[in-house]
Amino acid sequence: MVVEVGYAQAWDLEARAPWRPISAGEARERDVTGLPYVVVYREPGREAPLEVRLVSWRDHYVGLWVYDAQGRRTYDLDMRLLDDPARLLRRYAVGWHYTGPEMPEFDEKCPRITVDLFPDGRGRRTEEPRGKGGGSHATSPGLRDDERWMDRPAFGQWPLLSAQVHGLMEAPDLVVAESAESGEAGEPGDGDAPATCWRPPRAAQPGPINELFRPGVRVTDGYHPEQTVVEPRRVGTLRVPSGLLAVSGPDIDEGDGPHISVPVPPGEYVLDEARVYYSYHCEWRDTEVTTTDPTAVRLLVSETPAATWEMALGPDDDPRLFIEDQIAGFDTDGATGCFADAGAWEPLVALFERGLIQGEPDLDGYEDIDDGSMFLQRTWDEASGGELMAFATTGDGTYPVWVGRSDAGEVVAVVVLVEGMPELLPERDGTTADA
């Protein structure tokens, strides 16, 4: 069997077609320099590709997408190049098992299996017999080392990895099909490629964080169609004499230390919370009511507006392993987070546990906060002057920590969203708040 191999700068997901075809020589140059490119494997006479390989060495990434005869994606494999340049980790894989030729691509009822692997041997295999939302069963994959990793082939020597999926008993003859016209200068992501083109996976991105603290901005949380940002509520201050801010769940195992640490100038900083005002129909009262709810808590380092926002990483977070929209942050089993002076972390958390968990009466260095805000408890260490302020989240799980920086790169704010990232609504004149 003959399989044609073609190269392009990108792959158009909507059209299921290569974008800006390039020659094998141009693809080799992009491979050497780390620029993104794709490889398309086709069987003559078949409209849908057999598989598409997506390469971006600068992002430590190689992807493999397998298509069936109906043009539906049946398998995704996300591979990562880490510390060993000779092999690739099979980081993440999803397989869809369509029940018939009429089932649409990625149908919610389509059974699927997901495998999530890490270089330290951890992993998770999740079966969803009736697709997303239909129940699941998770187990440890128990794979051998050679099943977790694959040798990195040299350029031009990659096999058709989906050969068995397509029922090929023997290795096909791979023939390079030269492009009709070579690609132009540039690369996808620079504004040239359509929005429908593939790009390497990236972690969760900051949303309209600045706008959550800007009165008058209109947003929606997806459930309430319209909410209006009101003036942030100042709750108090936090002393960070060590110059290292801890953002974490205070309900962690002893000796683990805070999940996230952010360097800030030593000082005392304002704590406030973002709030939105909205109306909704109350079923049990059968009337329209209005309310004001918090959406985020903030430690304000400077009055300078944040020019950029970044997701803070913990000591064990490796950005090379992030899949699309993955978050990092602090974990909580008690629906609680905190801002604290990392230099006094252990005594501050010990006071929090003694006051809240053990309920010691009249405890020096501990205070319950009863002002209706998201901030619930405060502790302070007399020896260092460091403080901790605990706040409520909307549940257990992982909460990302967003660090705002000025144009000069200085930290100006640290924010935790307690209600998820809202979406901006158009202003009354039809523009958006960040236009």
Question: pLDDT average, as an integer?
Answer: 91
* Structural class estimated from helices and strands: mainly beta
Write down the oligomeric state: single chain
Pick out the low-confidence regions.
182-191
Strand % is 35-45%
**Radius of gyration in whole Å, from Cα?**
26 Å
How far apart, in Å, are the first and last alpha carbons? Answer: 54 Å
Q: Treating each run of at least 4 consecutive H or I residues as one helix, how many helices?
A: 3
- The tally of strands reads 28
Shape: elongated
Approximately how much helix is present in the residues?
under 10%
Q: What count of structural domains?
A: 2
Description:
6% of the residues lie in helices and 41% in strands. It is mainly beta and 435 residues long. Strands 1, 2, 3, 4, 5, 6, 7, 8, 9, 10, 11 and 12 form a 12-stranded mixed β-sheet that branches. An 8-stranded antiparallel β-sheet has the order 19-26-27-18-17-14-13-28, with no helix packed on it. Strands 16-15-21-24-23-22 form a 6-stranded antiparallel β-sheet, with helices on one face. Strand 26 and strand 27 form a beta hairpin. The N and C termini lie far apart (54 Å).
